[in-house]
Amino acid sequence: MDKMAKIKFSIITLFPEALKPYLDSSMLYKAQSRGIIEIEYVNLREFGLGPHKSVDDTPYGGGDGMLLRCEPVFAAVESIKLTDPQAEVIIPTPVGKTWNQNLAREFAGGDELRHYIIICPHYEGYDERILSIVDHKISLGNYVLTGGELPALILIDSVTRLLPGVLGGATSAEIESFSEGNNLEYPQYTKPAVFRGMAVPDVLLSGHHGKVDEWRKTNSGEKMD
Ligand code: ADE
What we know:
Bound molecules: adenine
Structural class: alpha/beta
Distance between the termini: 42 Å
Strand order of the largest sheet: 2-1-6-5-8
Strand content: 15-25%
């Protein structure tokens, strides 16, 4: 593991090519190139069974679709834990704990280096026994996705932006304290001061920092729904 990286994410997936373009762009690219995070792709197919490297099968008791089998997932997790037995295992699943900013903070927090293994399920689900090696079941919300890749990206993105050195300008601590925990931001504006008749609030042009802070506090945390 990179000595400098604050967090290593090992992603167990059948579709590393779906993850890579996003993780290699913008802030997450910078976080990797600055050595703040490290991403390891572990292709579940390599742990598949038989000549076809099979990773799924039909459910006992009948029913639609295919389920991720235990053997390849256990083997993939164990191969990572061989070098880092402390790594924590996450599975994105609609029946998990709902992901939020507090959880993102917990996952990003602490002084020690952290290593998360994210299992990305696919097909119609996974064999329940896989949960015996999972530390964190995480749901991204009350809807069902086709796989764990999008949740993995959201999780990595929301944790990484909290790490020191990732965001430009303000530190994550400053941003967090400003919105008193809920982290819903205040409205922001850039040039021009008037666009198609829509003017930036006067106070933001005033140069009066106290008043700007006050305005931001009273205008933060408004949800759109
Ligand atoms: N897999 C499928 N749907 C999901 C969701 N809403 N959250 C996390 N993982 C999922």
